[in-house]
Design a protein that fits this description.
By secondary structure, this protein is α/β, with parallel strands linked by helices. It contains three helices and twelve strands; from the N terminus they run E-H-E-E-E-E-E-H-E-E-E-E-E-H-E. A hairpin with a 2-residue loop joins strand 9 and strand 10.
């Protein structure tokens, strides 16, 4: 596992925590994130974690390969400035956009990604799900191998971030209860190796409401990054 941020690199000022109702259009979310990241860098706004749901869509990260878009007509496709390849967003998936000032948190991108993974893993433990990381694959995975069966690992949370002037944006996507068939239109995160797939809390037999997932994410975020305080959503 990548090493997460250490406790001495966590500022004591609470991070804003905002939740948007309904489904937020992806371009609007990106515009709001970029504006907030710029304001954080200029000292005009505080750090923020913003939880949203999107309508069904695909995003293409900076490393996306055209051949990994298997069904171009299924849903709208948006180019994204985040790292990574193709991913899916849609109802039943909690997207957490993380806008933190890494200039105050060690200026270590690898440690930041490790901290995001540790955050999601800690949240999953609250549902008795064991999440794991892999050195060659970013994200959080669940080992689904059965005794005597072939190896199988399914991704339950994707991670893709952008750092600009040491402020992060984009973030993580946790599969709570999305329609997993929607992932069939892409090669998720460029991983097409047999035995790798996608899963969700619901598919694992750990159904949760979005409110329950949010509560787990918030409690675990405090453990990894520090305290939070309620804040208005950017839009």
């Amino acid at each position: 596992m990548r090493q997460p941020l250490t406790s001495d690199l966590r500022p004591v000022i609470p991070v804003g925590w905002a939740v948007s109702a309904g489904r937020i259009a992806y371009p609007d979310a990106v515009q709001a994130m970029e504006a907030r990241a710029a304001a954080i860098r200029q000292g005009e706004a505080g750090e923020l974690v913003w939880l949203v749901e999107h309508p069904p869509l695909y995003t293409a990260g900076t490393s996306a390969r055209p051949e990994d878009l298997l069904n171009p007509g299924a849903f709208p496709v948006f180019k994204s400035a985040r790292g990574g390849q193709f991913t899916y967003h849609g109802p039943g998936q909690r997207v957490a956009y993380v806008m933190l000032d890494l200039a105050e948190r060690g200026r270590d991108v690898r440690a930041f990604v490790g901290a995001l993974e540790a955050w999601v893993i800690a949240a999953l433990r609250r549902f008795n799900v064991i999440g794991e990381t892999r050195e060659d694959r970013v994200g959080v995975w669940v080992d689904r191998t059965t005794p005597g069966g072939p190896p199988r690992e399914d991704k339950i949370a994707a991670i893709g971030v952008r750092i600009r002037r040491w402020v992060s944006f984009h973030g993580v996507a946790l599969n709570v209860e999305p329609d997993l068939s929607h992932f069939a239109g892409i090669v998720p995160c460029g991983v097409s190796t047999p035995g790798y797939g996608v899963t969700s809390l619901a598919e694992l037999g750990r159904p949760a409401t979005m409110d329950e997932a949010d509560a787990a994410l918030r409690a675990s975020f405090a453990e990894v990054f520090g305290p939070t305080v309620d804040a208005p959503a950017p839009i």
